[in-house]
Amino acid sequence: MTKAAAGGDGADSSIADQLHALGARGVLVQMAERGQLLALKCEMPQCYHHKGRGAFDPVTTPRTNWAPSPDHYPILKKDGGHLRPENVRLAHVWCNQRDYSWRTQIRTLLVKGKSLTEIAATLNSRSVPPAHGTNRWTAAMVRKAYVS
Ligand SMILES: [Zn+2]
């Protein structure tokens, strides 16, 4: 982690090395090699790993919940987004899946004209896990999560 940046082009080879060591390939490694990732940390608005954003499992088949995963962002895959460096953030598999789940549920309820308070109540009734360290969705949490 303390390896010097490579070549002065902003690329931090240590992040690419860490991703390689985990068995990651593809766009995340490409981004690290280009200096487009600042750290090996889950970048999701809500991270659920009990050891924190920097703890990752090696990539296996199938991937564990805590392996690195490229999240389509800011354009969701369902909206036509692609896994290219300009549309990816680093996630844990689990955090990526949770984000997709609550984000699409919130969006559907917004389209139906529901208030943030109603959406929070719906997510709580569906037992959708809220942010780490909290136990219930609130209107403010719904809005903050959705716009992040
Ligand atoms: Zn995470």
The kinds of small molecule bound in this structure are: zinc ion
Terminus-to-terminus distance:
28 Å
Structure summary, number of beta strands: 2
Query: What is the approximate shape?
Result: elongated
SS-derived structural category? mainly alpha
Widest sheet: strand ordering: 1-2
Main sheet summary: 2 strands, antiparallel
Q: Helices and strands, in N-to-C order? A: HHEEHHH
Radius of gyration: 17 Å
> Residue-averaged pLDDT, rounded?
90
Number of helices: 5
Can you describe what's shown?
With 148 residues, this protein is mainly alpha-helical. It folds into two domains: 1-40, no CATH class; 41-146, no CATH class. The chain is 36% helix and 7% strand. It is built from five helices and two strands. A two-stranded antiparallel ribbon has the order 1-2. Helix 1 packs antiparallel against helix 2 (27-33) and helix 4 crosses helix 5. The two termini are 28 Å apart. The site of zinc ion has 8 residues, from loops.
Q: Which terms would index this structure?
A:
2 domains; 148 residues; single chain; mainly alpha; elongated
Short description:
The protein is mainly alpha-helical and 148 residues long. Helices cover 36% and strands 7% of the residues. The protein has a two-stranded antiparallel sheet with strand order 1-2.
